[in-house]
Amino acid sequence: MTERSDTKKWGPRTNAVRAGTNRAFQETSEGLFLTSGYAYDSPDQAAARFAGEDKGYIYSRFSNPTVEMFENRLAAIEGAEWCMAAATGMAAVSSVFMCHLKPGDHIVSSRALFGSCRYVADDLCSRFNIEADFIDGTDLDAWKRAVRPETKLFFLETPSNPGLEVMDVQAIADIAHNCGAKLLVDNVFATPILQHPFELGADLVVYSATKHMDGQGRVMGGAILGNDVEWRDEFLRPFMRNTGPSLSPFNAWVLLKSLETLDLRVRAMAQNALEVAEALSPHIGHPLARVLYPFRHDHKQVDIAKRQMEGGGTVVTLDFAGDDETAQDRAFQFLRALELIDVSNNLGDAKSLATHNRTTTHHRLTEEARREQGITPGMVRVSIGLEDTADLMTDLNGALASVR
User: Fold this and answer.
1) Angstrom distance (rounded) from CA 37 to CA 50
2) Which class for 143: exposed (0-12), middle (13-18), buried (19 or more C-beta within 10 A)?
3) Is residue 402 helix, strand or coil?
4) Mind listing the domains of the chain with CATH numbers?
5) How far is the C-alpha of 349 from the C-alpha of 314, rounded, in Å?
6) Rounded distance, CA 273 to CA 382, Å?
7) What's the rounded Cα separation, in Å, for the pair 172 and 174?
């Protein structure tokens, strides 16, 4: 098996194709090991494996050759010492929270979060007497003010979902480390191609591999990455081993093959998104109040985005003008009029997708929480895919023209 140390000399695209490969029969395509268990040569070998003295496989809830290849390859792409795969992105997020925190601990989190992440950090953690403060993640002083003696975890996603707020990861990491907390970064929107949180001081990074890593709407998966091996072995590994949020070998194989083209797809999609974001400018005023994209000149955090990202990402967010009722009605008119772009709550797909977050991904939040995150009734998130930008703009312009 190719170990992490052997891949450091390779570039990211080579890692995406070669890193972590474990050939059993000199196969060119990575093997798919659909097995739940493993046989031992003897009871002595079985005992040695359970004791950790033999590094072989025990049970696919613990480890699996295909899953391990995916983990090693993603770690190489990310530049992390280790990766642990999970069944979904939310399994990855909740595993970090549940293994790292205990009753009485405190979380400081950006309030701009995916709805399910907000549920984990707020509703779920509160059941275990773990408190969370949700702050404006773009305000560094707010992070400092929220710190308590019992603060153990900082959490943010940047760019955020769906408002595309960009947070200064390096500055926030410094604040976290000064108070003895770990910084967990949800890097889904930027991907490991466009943003490198570990280089900016992050301690842990999580992904929904369902998004860009699959990128073709087929399977679900998640990943947790880090550099602290002792923390992984003391906290994360026992939690995942005993609670079972494991990634299936089949899904791992699909994701492993998709990683081969991740760099190519993400960069092409980000270029499409930038072109679309700029081409939508004539619609600002009517029917749009705003076009949000991290690399647009009018984005509030454009300087930070360009400093810590290699591209603006694959998502463009539209915000329709008007009072609440009018804006939401216009958003729905727009979505109904789309002919090429699918209405779907997923993102990071090769096909362009659009959704109204207030009534889909964030509908379980209170109206106050949605307002705090800047999720207006007129907001529509558009995940830009690999189609020709001319065709995307024909569809977008036609749908915008239909809005009364």
Assistant:
1) 13
2) buried
3) coil
4) 9-259 (3.40.640.10), 262-401 (3.90.1150.10)
5) 9
6) 9
7) 5
| Residues 150, 350: Cα–Cα separation, whole Å | 43
What are 152's two structure tokens?
Answer: 């153990």
Rounded Cα distance, 301 and 104, in Å:
34
Lookup: tokens for 131: 């408190």
CA dist 134 and 404 (Å) reads: 37
Beta bridge mates, 155: 109, 184
Instruction: Round to whole Å and give the CA distance between 355 and 342.
Output: 9
Query: C-alpha 116: how far from its chain's center?
Result: 12
pLDDT in tens, 55-77: 899 999 999 999 999 999 999 99
Specify which residues 277 forms β-bridges with: none
Helix (H, G, I), strand (E, B) or coil at 109: strand
Rounded CA gap, 48 and 143, in Å?
Answer: 47
Q: Which residue has the tokens 């280089």?
A: 199
Listed as ranges, residues in the chain with pLDDT below 50 are: 1-5
Q: At what angle do helices 389-401 and 324-337 cross, to 10 degrees?
A: 130
Residues 6+ apart with CB under 8 A from 208: 88, 89, 90, 92, 188, 221, 222
pLDDT of residue 5: 47
Report residue 376 as tokens.
Answer: 């207006």
